[in-house]
Amino acid sequence: MFLTFSGTTLASLPVLQVSPKVSFDGKVKKQIEEQLPAVCSFSNCTYVLLSLLNSLGYEAEVKGDKVIVVKSVLVKRVKIEGLPSAVSSLRKTVKLLLLGKPFSEDALENVKQLLLLNLRTAGYRDSNVRFKVVSQPDGYTVEIYVSAGLPFIVEKVVVDSPARYKKELLSAFKQLVGKRLDASVVKDLVDKLEEEYIKQGYFNAYISYSCSVVSQKSGKKLVILKIKFVPGKRYRIEFKGNEHFPPDKLKPLVTFYEAKSVDEFEIERSKERIKNFYEDNGFPFVKVESVLRREKDFVVVEFKIDEGKQVVVKRVVPKNYQEFFKSLMGKPFSRSKVESAVAKMRRFFKEKGFLDVKVSYVVLPSGVLKVKVDKGKRYYLISVKVWGDFLNCSSLKNLKLPIVYTEDVLNNIMDRIKNCYKKAGFSGTEVIVNKRFVNGKSKTFVLLSIYVFPGEKREFGFVIVEGLERTGLKWIRKLIVIHPGEIYKEDSIINQYSKLANTRLFSMVSINDYPVDGVVNEVISLREGSLLHAKGFVGYGTDSGYVMNGFLSSTSPFGLGIKYFLFGNYRQKEGYDAVFKMNKPAFPFERYDTSYSIVKKEQIFESFTTDKIFYRFALEREASKVMFQSFGIEIARESIKDTTIHEKNESVKRTLFYFQRYDKRDNVKNPKRGYLIQLFTSFAGRFLGGNTDYWLVDEKALKLFPINEKIVVALREGAGLIQPIRGSYVPVQDRFFLGGAESVRGYKYGTISPTDSNGNYVGGEAYGLFSCEVRYNFTQTIQGAVFYDSGKVFRKGGDFSFGNWYSSVGVGFRYITPVGPLRIDYGYKLKEVLGQGKGRFHISFGFPF
Asked: Cβ–Cβ contacts within 10 Å for residue 225, how many?
């Protein structure tokens, strides 16, 4: 550590000073000065401050009541000269390794070895690297001088191998002649050839290469590349006695391919894998032997398989254990599944206190599975004594002895003690247990002696935020939830990291602990998100026509800790929307984010077109890891056109809304298990003003059931109700419509709806929706699906019923991209709609639910 004392540490508040020659972050200095009184109130703050400065990369000394920063030990500048263009990408890597890090000889040595390794691999075999280090008060300057030497150029390729292989090898390596000797390229060629020879049966083939300099001219060294190939024996794999499984099924079990060799060890491994495969597929009595024999050009490795009788599990004896094996009944015997069930039995009995339980089994050719259980003695906990627990965290008063003893009982006691001490600031608490067992006639008694070593109590010292360039610290102070003097807890660090990472303001969040003298200084390093980030796509959908999507975001451009979004979505047949949104994390309350949005939107329905512009103010929060909540107010001006619907063409609406999402899916982009529940409620008009009054409730739920690794069943249900208040009305554009790629496939967008006397689709005040989809993952990116959708929109809420719904069945194809699936679905109508045909293709983006 770079700690220098030239005076004595005083109990009074120290003064932080920075030498004029040292470049010191003014934002960090201000934070230290603000936090000094708090840190000095519970610690030797001079020593804690010196430790913090050291961890930030500065040397400091104490003079009287002053702590003076005299030097930076960080690398501030890196210069690289002489690096060939072939390895120019290393510049960025070297700077990442050195810049902003404390200077050390070890770091320089690592950089040197990195450069030399890559230079020599790239054909600069005589390269050299030297450093010039300049130490200044404001940091180190590291100058790196690379002497690459002359590049090695392949003039000729020479092959040392049996004659029959020379032509092929020369052909493979002749592409290197006249080029720089790049070891990575040579290695790729060698690996490719080895794979080819393995396919031909040369499992013990060996290819090596070397080079020798023959001349030097025109600023380069000419070399001969020597390739040596030892093919070894050629092997052929055969199977005998495999009546139920073809060779193509058994060959992948042979280990020669992955080991790239054939020897006694690999033969035994292969026999074991073949045996395990048979035992897992209904043949528990299989025997596998191997024979090697020499033929003209091959050594034949023959695996002789005596499959034995195929067994289907029909019965388990005794019957009282059948529950553990119920998933195996009526299916071919599988040793791994039986072993898994046996392990489950052992856990069951151990949880009941039979710690020495032994479970064995025998399978008979008749399909009977005989299970034998030797429970042994039951364990009872009769005594627990605790030493060193000065906080009384063990809470043994609630432990009514004797009780059945299991490992969980002990673990619960230990976890309770550790967690209790952690909450009190003793993060390094150790709990040691001594067990004594006393054998009774039919029971085993357990006596526990527990020793608690609390260790050192810790508190948070300085909490410093660094790395902010545009954003002012005062605008994100509510995001900092750990403070000097608070009890140090690991949970607090995790909470702090999550709080910062979830804001989307930062592209990097790092929190480092620096313990000293019972205090832990925290340095929070942040990297702000992009000042400008853009993306978009162009596509085509059958319901939507041509689709264009654009997204623009900016992080804290004015230094206020606000995320700005601008995104638009144009759909040729369905309209467009343009959204400007601002999001301010932890404002005005620590647990809530504030968002303000302006939305311009056009929607093209079958019977009308609507234009909307609305302004939305919302408070949002992540209530837990799985629950998101949002509530606020929305002011909108809406109009309808291109229609013969006899309703008001314009309306002004003021709405209070609440949205809640509970998401327990395992993955957002391609979920395979879990569930999602969404609820949206709103109230428009009345005391809020506007010329429409109604309330709305809309809920949706999704449940995913994995059948196996490839098949997932997805169920979706939805229901909504919108009701006018005291004789008011619900504008047509706010009513419910179904049909299209996201609801009941097979029907055109918005055409599942009540109609007026002119045949216009006018929406309804209630709807119901149900879908079932079976998804099959052919690969990680290719997915097929079969589905059933059903739904109906009702003119009035009181009309809701489960009869005569619009339904469709169909098939789908999905290509999974990093941002979600490209989807093609075909839905076949089970209830016809005049003028729409029997079915409909839908090309769209994202899962339907």
From this structure: 20
Q: 733: which 2 tokens? A: 């554009």
- The segment(s) of the chain belonging to CATH 2.40.160.50 are 605-845
Are 180 and 200 in contact, with CB atoms under 8 Å apart? Answer: no
CATH 2.40.50.140 fits 152-230, yes or no: no
| pLDDT confidence bin for 789, thresholds 50/70/90 | very high
Angle CA 224–227–228, to nearest 5 = 140
- What average pLDDT score do residues 437-454 get? 94
What is the C-alpha separation between 808 and 63, in angstroms, rounded?
Answer: 83
Please name the fold of domain 315-374: Ubiquitin-like (UB roll) (3.10.20)
- What's the predicted TM-score (pTM) here? 0.75
Q: How are strands ordered across the β-sheet holding 139-147?
A: 75-81, 139-147, 128-136
List CB contacts of 274: < 8 A, sequence separation 6 or more: 250, 253, 254, 288, 303, 305
Q: What is the DSSP letter of 377?
A: P
Q: What is the DSSP letter of 488?
A: P
CATH fourth-level superfamily of 75-147:
membrane protein fhac (3.10.20.310)
- CA–CA distance, 529 with 578 (Å, rounded to integer): 23
Q: 605-845 sits in which CATH class?
A: mainly beta
Adjacent-strand bridge partners of 718: 700, 769
Q: Which residues contact 93 (CB under 8 A, 6 or more apart)?
A: 114
How far CA 434 is from CA of 378, 410, 420, 447, in Å, comes to 19, 11, 21, 8
d(CA 629, CA 25): 38
Question: Residue holding tokens 């059931």?
Answer: 705
Cα–Cα distance for residue pair 769/413, rounded to 1 Å: 50
Tokens of 291: 């024979």
CB 787 within 8 A of CB 815: no
Confidence check: pLDDT of 11 > 60: no
Superfamily of the domain at 235-306: membrane protein fhac (3.10.20.310)
Question: Mean pLDDT throughout 815-832?
Answer: 84
Top-level class of domain 378-453 = alpha beta
CA distance linking residue 403 with residue 385, whole number of Å: 15
Residues of the chain with CATH 3.10.20.310: 75-147, 152-230, 235-306, 315-374, 378-453
What gap in Å lies between CA 5 and CA 54, rounded to an integer?
Answer: 13
Measure the CA dihedral 829/830/833/836, to 10°: 20
* Strand 315-317 to 368-374 pairing: parallel
**Cross-strand partners of 512:** 523
Instruction: Give the H/E segment covering residue 275.
Output: helix 264-279
pLDDT at 2: 41
DSSP code per residue over 9-54: --SSPPEEEE-TTS---HHHHHHHHHHHHHHHTTS-HHHHHHHHHH
Compute the distance between CA of residue 762 and CA of residue 750 in angstroms, rounded to an integer.
9
SS3 content of the chain, % helix, strand, coil (to 5): 20, 45, 35
